[in-house]
């Protein structure tokens, strides 16, 4: 218990000495130990790397999740270690509304049929966008965030310790200077100036040793920050590749949609035909659907079903199969493959 009290008193004394030393430095009444040019350059490089990585990461997150409210929600879910909500993207919401409008206007009309087709492709674009976001997070955002949470936090911690050691060192240097100035004067409080100088020089040697050791540790970590850029470069290449694939898939889908719409416009009969390519076509549920009666089929989000045919009594529904279960599902809940 006595040891703990002494330790607390010593730490409090060190904290006061650091505060006094820092105040005197700011007032210009005390000198400070300067780091060598190499260390200062490494420290500046580390600060630049940290600041730009944070800014790039924020900008990337804004691109991948444009809605600020969603970003805040995702951040809170991460902090409480809960799974992020599986929300639809803006493209998928647009697609759902287009399909619903097309079914309301009538799939047999040119406009209604076109709305349904465009809506289905908007949903496909939404799926491609979701895949791109997942890939970009994995190859770019997550590594950058780990770098900030691990390497940079360690560097910041060790630099803070180094600054404390520097303040301790400079405080010891000041005590030595003051003790030397007291030489030849009478003893104060029973302590001779010679003994006070000897004690101050001993503390200075200890402080210098601790400062040198901490500076070496910090310098090694700062050099590691510089080498981390090679890893960030690889992540950047992977991000560009994921983005390139994303836009290529989007372009391919839009070309298909253009050709499909042009074909429908040139062939009026085609515009009133079924959206289904053939019996046995696969479709994925965009969200949960609960059957309203025994003729319908319940599905969960992302569940894949086999489409058997369109319902003859209601063109807004399709007959589907899921394992041994059969029933009809509204088209607007499905993404046809």
Automatic annotation (TrEMBL):
Residues 24-270 form the BAR domain. Residues 259-279 are annotated as: Disordered. GO terms for biological process: membrane organization. Keywords: SH3 domain. It comes from the Eukaryota. GO terms for cellular component: cytoplasm; membrane. Residues 263-274 have a biased composition (Low complexity). InterPro entries: AH/BAR_dom_sf (IPR027267), BAR_dom (IPR004148), Endophilin_SH3RF (IPR050384), SH3-like_dom_sf (IPR036028), SH3_domain (IPR001452). PROSITE patterns: BAR, SH3. Belongs to the endophilin family. This is Endophilin-B1. It comes from Bemisia tabaci. The lineage of its organism: Eukaryota, Metazoa, Ecdysozoa, Arthropoda, Hexapoda.
């Amino acid at each position: 218990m006595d040891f703990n009290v002494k330790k607390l008193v010593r730490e409090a004394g060190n904290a006061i000495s650091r505060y006094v030393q820092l105040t005197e430095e700011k007032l210009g009444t005390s000198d400070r130990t300067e780091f060598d040019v190499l260390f200062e350059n490494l420290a500046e490089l580390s600060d630049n790397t940290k600041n730009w990585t944070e800014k790039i990461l924020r900008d990337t997150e804004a691109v991948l999740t444009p809605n600020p409210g969603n970003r805040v929600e995702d951040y809170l879910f991460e902090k409480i270690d809960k799974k992020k909500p599986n929300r639809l993207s803006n493209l998928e919401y647009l697609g759902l509304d287009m399909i619903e409008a097309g079914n309301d206007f009538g799939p047999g009309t040119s406009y209604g049929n076109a709305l349904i087709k465009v809506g289905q492709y908007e949903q496909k674009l939404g799926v491609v966008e979701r895949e791109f976001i997942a890939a970009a997070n994995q190859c770019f955002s997550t590594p950058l965030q780990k770098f900030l949470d691990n390497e940079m936090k360690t560097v910041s911690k060790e630099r803070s310790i180094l600054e404390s050691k520097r303040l301790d060192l400079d405080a010891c240097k000041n005590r030595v200077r003051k003790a030397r100035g007291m030489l030849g004067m009478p003893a104060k409080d029973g302590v001779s100036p010679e003994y006070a100088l000897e004690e101050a020089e001993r503390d200075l040697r200890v402080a210098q040793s601790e400062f040198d050791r901490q500076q070496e540790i910090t310098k090694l970590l700062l050099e590691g920050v510089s080498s981390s850029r090679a890893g960030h470069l690889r992540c950047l290449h992977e991000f560009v590749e994921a983005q390139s694939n994303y836009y290529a898939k989007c372009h391919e889908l839009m070309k298909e949609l253009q050709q499909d719409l042009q074909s429908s416009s040139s062939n009026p009969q085609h515009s009133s035909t079924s959206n289904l390519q053939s019996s046995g076509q696969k479709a994925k549920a965009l969200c949960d659907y609960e059957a309203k009666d025994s003729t319908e089929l319940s599905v969960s989000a992302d569940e894949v079903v086999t489409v058997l045919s369109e319902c003859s009594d209601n063109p807004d529904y399709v007959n589907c199969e899921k394992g041994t279960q059969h029933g009809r599902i509204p088209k607007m809940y499905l993404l046809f493959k």
